[in-house]
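Sample A.
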Amino acid sequence: LLLAAAPGALLAQNTGSPIQVFVMPPVTTRDNGSTLGVRVPFRLLDAEGNSIDNVRITDVRIKLLDVPPGAIDFGNLTQPIEQISAPLYVTIVIDISGSMEEELADVRNAARTTVERAPANVLFRIVTFHGETGNPKLETRQDFTTDRASLRNAIDDIAELGSGTCYFDAIYAELDRLATAGVAANVTPRKAIMAFTDGRDMVNDERVPCSRHSIDEVIGSARSKLIPLYTLGLAGNLDENVLTRLANETQGMAVIGPQSELSALFGQAFAGIVNQYEAEFAVLPDAGRNRAYVEVSLANTGEVVRSALFEFDAPRSYIATPTPVPP
């Protein structure tokens, strides 16, 4: 039985190293009888928050914080460290509000390039949005598929523009749809949303919110579903703090830049999704909520980089009872 950890502090620890370790949700557990298996997905980022894919990992270790004195507070690695190969479901959400006239062609090209260069295990869903206050309008251009030709055609068909920017409602609706995608026996799919916009959540220049849902509701939904948000935006007319908060508080990534760099922005966000690793450990935790961190050893720099604390649940105590020593 896989038990998803509740959202917690899944962030990097600032150790002064230019490389940071981010533990990604969901951390899952499995009862192996005498031990508890803990599977930890993680990614490596540089000091600017960009994904790193040119390092060689030599070892990953886990350290438990909530075990009694004298108990075993570390775990054994039970499988080779490798990039995650589980199915990955990604929804690309594209703003087609009225202000997108000059950028739409470049956005289509950036989305098309992302789809074409993605690994075979990635399934994409393409959604566009616009709307009026209290009346968001979302359209599914292509449901989840690995068929790159169908995805390219769906992206190329995005032509007509709408009205306002219902950004929060678009993400909120896609979180509900994505939560039910990829449910299969013995497989824990990864999921993420890439949400592009060129402006603020409002109707034209009236400064009236277009969405019915607030940023707090969007973040709460993403955290409860363990789906990270990768927010993309054009610098200039954005509230950059909004995009950054949506990403940071859901363990995603915010990438913001000029129109001339749209392909690079999409590529940077997608690299953060796919360049993830996984380590599985056999541990002996106490029953209930446990805190832990991982240490990643890197061959390129000789560094050992530590993550921030993360949490997982143990269905029972696995701490072995000490054998009495005869007098």
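Sample B.
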Amino acid sequence: MKQNFQSIIIGSGSYIPPVVVSNDHFLGHRFFDPATKTPYEKDNLEIIEKFREITNISERRYCLPEENTSDLGYKAALDAITSSGIDPESLDFIIAAHNFGDISATVLRSDIMPGISARIKQKLGLKNPAMFTHDVIAGCPGWVQALIVADLFLKSGQYQRGMVVGCDVNSRAADPYDRDAMIFADGAGAVILEARATDEQVGILSHAIQSDTLEAGYLTMDRSLNPEYEKDEIFIRMQGHKVYVYALTNVPKVVKRSLQLAGLTLTDVKKVLIHQANEKMDQAILERVFRLYKIKEIPEDVMPMTISFLGNSSSATVPTLYDLIVKEKLGDHRLASGDVIVLTSVGAGMMINSVIYKMP
């Protein structure tokens, strides 16, 4: 008789880098218009204030010069291991979501061999050869996508325990001459998942994914906006308005589909943990989700946010948000047994994903 396995989070961790970078840090930058490749005529103070009004980002975190993506992932992984109390050698797999691999503070080149997941295993000093490592590169939705992959591994019945890490050092992949560089930040988050044989509907209940590759050009890598920048490097390039429209049009439908697959409705949801991309965009997405269910009143605390002080750390935003809440480090936000949460993200690909999770 085939057993039903549910994927349960038994521990979480995060690493918030120590370097606090306020908006004032960018006052001395030269920002170039992506359309003309010439400097903006507006004063930087005006550009930065408009940026804050749109995104609600006042500060973000950067890693130390000696830290790298795998270091951040390792520290979040160590925190998750401590939180769970497990023997880390008992892990069957480590999945790491990231976008650029390790990028040196002095040489801005992606280094993804060996993979970040393998580097995290190495930094943890883990010896079990049966513990496999796997990298997921899927833009900002990377960690949620990795969570879905881990769920499928565990529900196969072949594996019992795994770790899912999201880590990115976006500060080294962002063009210093692009005003969008102010959005990006560094960070890492991790969870440990365990397969439990049960007929109870807990843990990961469902997930939905959408991939629109014809819109892939909304988020790409390209040369600096400054024509005089002589180094042969490529940076994140984002068509902000197109990303905004795409997200508002598509994310609500994917969230609704994931709830339908779980046999739930929006009123069953306690929290929506959405990728921290842009506060106004996230708020607009939430409003459209509620509109799909013809609900006019949105609970005030349903969507916790960290973007105002942590910025957009890509693959790390959702697991960091989860860890801060379960450890009661994010204001009055709390999660209790039986609470249903949505974990959702949108980004490069273009990709959207949504996971429905019920706290055990």
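B remarks: The chain has eight helices and 15 strands. The chain has a mean pLDDT of 94.
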